[in-house]
Amino acid sequence: MGRILLGADFGTSQVNVVALDVKTGQTIGFSSSPYKSGVIEKTLPDGTKLPRGFALQDPSDWLEGLFEATKKLIEETRIPEKEIISIGVSFTSCTVLPVDVFGTPLCMIGDLSKNPHAWPKLWRHTTAQPQANLLTSIAQERGEPFLDFYGGKMGAEWLWPKLLELVQEAPELVPSIEYFIEAGDWIVWQLTGHQVRNQCAAGYKACWVEGVGYPGHDYFASISQELADLSDKARGIEVLPPGRPAGKLIKDMAAKLGLRTGIPVASAVIDAQSAVAGAGVFEPNTMTIVMGSSNCHLVMSKQERLFVGYAGVVKDGILDGYWGYEAGQPAMSDMLEWFVNTIAPISFYERANEDETEFATILDRYLSEVPAGSNGVLALDWMGGNRSILLDSSLSGVFAGLTLQTRAEDMYKALAEASAFGTRKIVETFRAGGVEIKQIVATGALPITSPSLIQIYADVLGMPISVPDTNNATGRGAAIIGGLSAGMEKLGHKSRESYFKALLPQTLDWCKPHEANKKLYNDIYNDYLTLHDLFGGTQRVLARLRERGKA
User: Fold this and answer.
1) Residue 470 included in any domain
2) Which of 73, 187, 306, 545 is close enough to 31 for a disulfide, judged by CB 3.0 to 4.6 Å?
3) At what angle are helices 451-461 and 515-536 packed, to 10 degrees?
């Protein structure tokens, strides 16, 4: 009987491969490989200039990264081939690409590579806001019931707006497209030679509803016949919940990975959703905040609740047996990195050199040293738009309260506090909608590298926050959920509950709110809500500013 669960997590900048011991949950091996092209935002490889707001990737980077990271892990750990039980895949979402009937990405086909719309559009590609607005308004006019599961709006990051953007701006590509597919599903297709759709991404990013399917042909045809025809091609493809077997590893891929053929491969999951399992959250009413390039807020519940403010609710979207609720903030570490690259003064770096410590540690110290309230500076964390609760990618960030005495560290803390205020707005919206939240778990790199940030969140939310002892919950979760595809007998467990229990990570930290800061933040939060409602409501100045910036 094997003992190793393999998880492949495709992030924004690299692929991580994790090997877990199925009995103890111990990480046996970890390896990563960065994407050679990274995020393609300025020009295509041939020099074609990209419009502002485009965020593309090279699919060959995904495969080459997977091959390299997996081979490296196997070489370093010397895990015997027969010990690997299963392979799980998690991927950023909504990252989508057009492919032909054989699954070949259009960007890999001759002169089609010169067209930006032939390339995979990364999750943070948000230029499809006009298409999202159109899809939403038509759905509202027609009374389409699927909108109830998405807070009444369709997001610009999602599959259908990105496909409509392609149809409208690059109609010459349409005859070459057989499928418009999530990157996670494409990877599974390459590994198994079998095409399926994962219920996680189909539900959260393509408006697929259990028992109903995708939005109807007539709805799409009322907007674009080409869009309707392409949507029909997805309808006959099986949609699988997390942990279901999608197929087995084929010979060609096994050779490139350094593995044996026939290993079960599970249907893909969204990276944030996989992090819920990776963080050890297997029960309802605990919010998992996955803190990476963006923030993703996920809660499982035994009840279906439909209200305005979440980004999606999907039956069995995270784990079987629960309704999975999702919300998010499009910019977290991306926003803090923007500050470092754009505003952080030389004194920050000088302090790091003087203290002989990591730059991230210095940033964390500033968060603890600057008093709550950032010396009068208040921000809106909408650098990447607002996913929840407004679902509007056209919005942009705000600093308020700047004076001649404002310091860079005040602005940095204001951004951190703004992200915490945005999370509080999400938590309050969920509770008002009938979704109970008893506990909060924060996972990702930031909770480990910046404990002061988590303290701010605890103070703003007025709740304790636990941090699991894992710096790659997404890869860990991919391995855990992927293991379900092998079945309990091969996993050596009698039940799903005992399996999950064996894989629980240790708790690294437990942040309790400071009462004094909690009271102060209650007052500041009211000011945040004023800014939130002013700039996020009928006042469209932020959208106009962002649009001018594209010129």
Assistant:
1) no
2) 73
3) 80
Q: Are strands 4-10 and 84-91 parallel, antiparallel or unpaired?
A: parallel
β pairing state of 323-329 and 295-301: antiparallel
Check whether residue 232 and residue 137 sit in a common domain.
yes
CATH of the domain at 363: 3.30.420.40
Token code pair at residue 63:
């495969």
The closest of 24, 15, 1, 10 to 480, measured between CA atoms, is: 24
Sign of torsion over alpha carbons 199, 203, 204, 207 = positive
Host domain of residue 113: 4-269
Quote the tokens at residue 232.
């029909």
Are the C-beta atoms of 164 and 128 separated by less than 8 Å?
Answer: yes
Question: Burial letters for 314-327: b for 16+ Cβ neighbours within 10 Å, e otherwise?
Answer: bbbbbbeebbbbbb
Last residue of a domain, one of 269, 287, 316: 269
In whole angstroms, what is the distance from residue 210 CA to residue 203 CA? 8
**Last residue in a domain, options 269, 284, 308:** 269
Length of the chain equals 551
Which stretches of the chain score pLDDT less than 70? Answer: 1, 551
Q: Which residue has the tokens 């519940």?
A: 301
> Is 247 in contact with 194 (CB distance < 8 Å)?
yes
CB within 8 Å of 229: residues ≥ 6 apart: none
CA 294 to chain centre: 7
Instruction: Give the pLDDT confidence score for residue 262 in this predicted structure.
Output: 98
Asked if residue 297 is part of any domain, the answer here is no
* Rounded Cα gap, residues 250 and 257, in angstroms: 11
Q: Is 387 part of any domain? A: yes
Closest CA to 15 of 37, 36, 35: 35
Note the pLDDT of residue 283: 94
Say how far apart CA 95 and CA 187 lie, in whole Å. 12
Tokens of 497: 């509950």
CB atoms within 10 A of CB 475: 32
pLDDT single digits (tens) 282-313: 999 999 999 999 999 999 999 999 999 999 99
CA distance 306 to 403: 43
Q: Read off φ and ψ for residue 9, nearest 5 degrees.
A: -110, 115
Query: pLDDT by residue (tens digit) across 328-383?
Result: 999 999 999 999 999 999 999 999 999 999 999 999 999 999 999 999 999 999 99
The count of domains in the chain is 2
Grouping H, G, I as helix, E, B as strand and the rest as coil, residue 349 is helix
Tell me which residue of 423, 414, 379 sits closest to 399, measured CA to CA: 379
User: How far is 83 from 222, CA to CA, in rounded Å?
Assistant: 53
Identify the pLDDT of residue 539: 74
Amino acid at 314: V
Q: Tokens 């990476």 label which residue?
A: 292
Residue 1 has what pLDDT?
64
| pTM, 2 dp | 0.93
The reported pLDDT for the residue numbered 551 is: 55
3-state secondary structure of 510: strand
Nearest to 290 by CA among 339, 243, 332: 332
For residue 466, give the H/E element and its range: strand 465-468
Query: Could you tell me if residue 407 is inside a domain?
Result: yes
Whether 389 and 256 share a structural domain: no
Based on the fold, state whether residues 384 and 525 are members of the same structural domain. yes
In the structure, how many helices (H) and strands (E) does the chain have?
20, 20
